[in-house]
Amino acid sequence: MANDVYSSTTTPNPESSCFKVPSKLLDKTRFVLKVCEVLLSLVAFILEELVGSCSSCNPLYFFEFVSCTAFLFTLLLLILLATHLHEKVNISCWPKVDFFYTAIITALFFISSITFAVDNGRSELETVAVVFGFFSAVVFVVDVVVFLRTTGSPLRDSQATESNGTPVTAEAEKLNNGGH
Question: Is the pTM of this model over 0.85?
Answer without folding.
Answer: no
